[in-house]
Design goal:
Pfam families: Methyltransf_11. By secondary structure, the protein is of the alpha/beta class. It is built from nine helices and nine strands. The longest helix has 14 residues. The protein is globular and about 55 Å long.
Length: about 240
């Protein structure tokens, strides 16, 4: 499991998009129990805080203590610095296990072994993420698309391809449940969009290697004060433990 975001934990907490309540409602409706949930790769708690109101207890884990330190303090949530692939949890502990915008960094085989060990027999496992940002402003959308596909080409970690492939190519050894499609819809000012772009791992790699920001050509967006309509397609794989085999 990689840790790429400890150095930007505060910015990550402030600038990353939140998931829609409709997605959370859909997951909760699939559950057979609401005792305990595990949000793995929780970062600064973007998803944790949305699922917490439904459960007696939630554990949120991440490899980065800096990220967890930015998460909101909630009475029924325990934050633990643990790798996804090796945890301290008892067998069959969880009604729900989630991993949001993180599974592409994991060792799939080892993580799935932990999921199968710690998920209750009738529990639910949900892999969640979001794809490339889309903007209603055609010109700005094209410029960000150019940044993503050309300027930053060669600076993305290899694992990013799983996001580009909408998580459809990750191994998923569970009995999959068909789910509706969701998207994140937000209104961001130029500075908010700028902050989000600065959380991209490839932007950090570019700066570390070339000692200059790849966002220089986009600095004019800092002047945009009116909200810009932005969307992210939700990536979603949901399943239960296989009943045979």
């Amino acid at each position: 499991m990689k840790d790429l975001f400890s150095e930007q934990s505060e910015l990550y907490q402030q600038a990353r998009p939140t998931y829609p309540q409709t997605l959370v409602n859909c997951l909760i409706a699939q559950l057979n129990g609401l005792d305990c949930a595990w949000d793995c790769g929780a970062g600064s708690g973007q998803l944790t805080q949305l699922i917490a109101p439904y459960f007696q207890h939630v554990v949120a884990t991440d490899l980065s203590q800096n990220q967890l330190d930015q998460a909101p303090a909630l009475s029924n949530v325990q934050y633990l610095q643990q790798a996804a692939e090796q945890t301290s949890f008892a067998d069959q502990s969880f009604d729900l296990i989630t991993v949001a915008q993180a599974i592409h960094w994991f060792d799939f085989e080892k993580f799935y072994a932990e999921v199968k060990r710690t998920l209750k027999l009738n529990g639910l496992f949900a892999v969640i993420g979001y794809g490339l940002i889309q903007l209603d402003d055609t010109d700005l959308n094209q410029r960000i698309d150019l940044l993503y596909h050309q300027t930053l080409k060669g600076f993305w970690d290899a694992e990013r391809r799983y996001i580009d492939e909408h998580y459809q190519t990750i191994p998923f050894p569970f009995e999959e449940i068909a789910m509706p499609q969701f998207q994140i819809e937000l209104g961001w000012t130029g500075p908010q969009l700028w902050d989000y772009l600065n959380t991209w791992s490839a932007v950090k790699h570019y700066q570390d290697r070339l000692h200059v920001s790849p966002l220089v050509s986009l600095e004019d967006i800092l002047q945009i004060q009116q909200p810009i309509a932005v969307r992210f397609p939700i990536l979603l794989r949901v399943g239960r433990l296989a009943t045979s085999g």
